[in-house]
Amino acid sequence: MTDLIRQIEDRMNAPLPGRDAHLQMAHITRRHYVEAPVDARQAAVLMALFPKANEWHIVLIERNANDRDHHGGQISFPGGKAEPGDATMLSTALREAEEEVGIGQAEVKVLGGLTELYIPVSNSQVHPFLGYLEAPPAFRLQLEEVNSVLEVPLSHFQSPEVRRETDIRINPQITLKHVPYFDLNGRVLWGATAMMLNELLQMVGSD
Questions:
Q1: For residue 204, which phi and psi values (nearest 5 degrees)?
Q2: Measured by CB atoms within 10 angstroms of the end CB, which terminus of the chain is less buried, N or C?
Q3: How many domains does the chain have?
Q4: Which domain CATH number covers 132?
Q5: How far apart are CA 134 and CA 42, in angstroms?
Q6: Cβ contacts of residue 36 below 8 Å, gap of 6+?
């Protein structure tokens, strides 16, 4: 199983798939990349891999529905906005993962940062970081923020059948048509999370 980690480490030393990978899972309204404005809020997420049942899994969370959160109820990576005490954006990602799902910062072996992504609806510049754990984590949920944890085999996303399109109702006035998404046994993983995940998938290849 260490072969995948070595492959990722080697790939991190080459140019990343970047925005081209992001845009493959973007709605048509995002096909022209939007640069982050100077006042964008800085945020970070942790893309955490861990071994289970002889294959690599990735940690995803289902956020609690929240009218104040543009991403409430969605599937995402653990993460959130930078706080004054965070030394770096990596510090933000590790702190948020520990707070939201209980992954100890010392458990994470950081592989590096992937391509930043600006999210216009929340005016957030998201810094994704990739890391792995040597054993399955003992999850401890921040119930105010997180409804559940999804432990998904990375191989699930490498199957072409899970890449689909659907219509997503953003609010009573707006429905996005033909939105690319990853199917998670009937759950919809779309938006910024799908875009960032697609960069990782291009780095590891498909079955």
A1: -100, -10
A2: C
A3: 1
A4: 3.90.79.10
A5: 29
A6: 116, 118, 125
> Angle CA(179)–CA(185)–CA(188) in degrees, nearest 5?
25
CA dihedral sign of residues 23, 129, 17, 125: positive
Provide the token pair at 185. 């046994």
Tokens of 74: 């969605």
Neighbours of 174 (CB within 10 A): 8
Asked if 55 and 154 count as a contact pair (C-beta separation under 8 A), the reply is yes
The domain in which residue 113 lies consists of 2-204
Kindly report whether the global pTM for this prediction surpasses the value 0.85. Answer: yes
